[in-house]
Amino acid sequence: MENFYTSKFLDKVWGLVLIVILVSFMACNEVGSDDTVPSIGKDKCYTPESSWAIGLRFTTDGKRAKYIEIPAYDVNNANGAEIKWVYLESSVRGKFIGAVKVNELLEGEVPQGASPGDFVKLRIRIDVDEWTFVPEITNVKIGGFNLTPPDNISPDELDIHTGTATQKTGAGEGNWEYYEVVLSRYLYYSVYVESQYEVACVE
User: Fold this and answer.
1) pTM over 0.90
2) pLDDT tens per residue, range 15-53
3) R_g over Cα of the chain
4) Which of 94, 106, 158, 191 has its CA 20 to 30 A from that of 151?
5) Across-strand partners of 140?
């Protein structure tokens, strides 16, 4: 009888141990905004940090949302001319991790029925080796405005374009890869990127 109860007791103990191990495993793999995020299938870990196309700030109250201004259409800058170049800056560390460019469209890129200057091409790259786009989420959000934005806005309000960039960090100018999108022309744009940087993995 003693062995019977001992066996039952040990079964319950091992069951509780397995539950604790399972819960701990699930907790370690839950991703939050401040967590270290292991990349899938690679022995690397990352911490997320949002980034913005560096420009003017909506407010001076400590919030980091920014916007850039582009020039009005000039026929002399047609056919693919680059009309804006700014750094992509991480919002907490203040590190330049890439670039955002705005170009006029090439003749063959102008949408049917549109006039030259109605649209622009916006290009985003990350070019610092330890930084990447956060994968498998909506990691690019862009807002467009024709009047100076009066108040601070959240990334969720940047709604003229959202997308998922999968481009890799470039190892040099000849190898840079850009996330590209054609947008209706606005005087001001806010460009928000969900980025991440590599950190030491903690076991």
Assistant:
1) no
2) 444 443 333 333 333 333 444 444 444 678 999 999 999
3) 24
4) 94
5) 163, 193
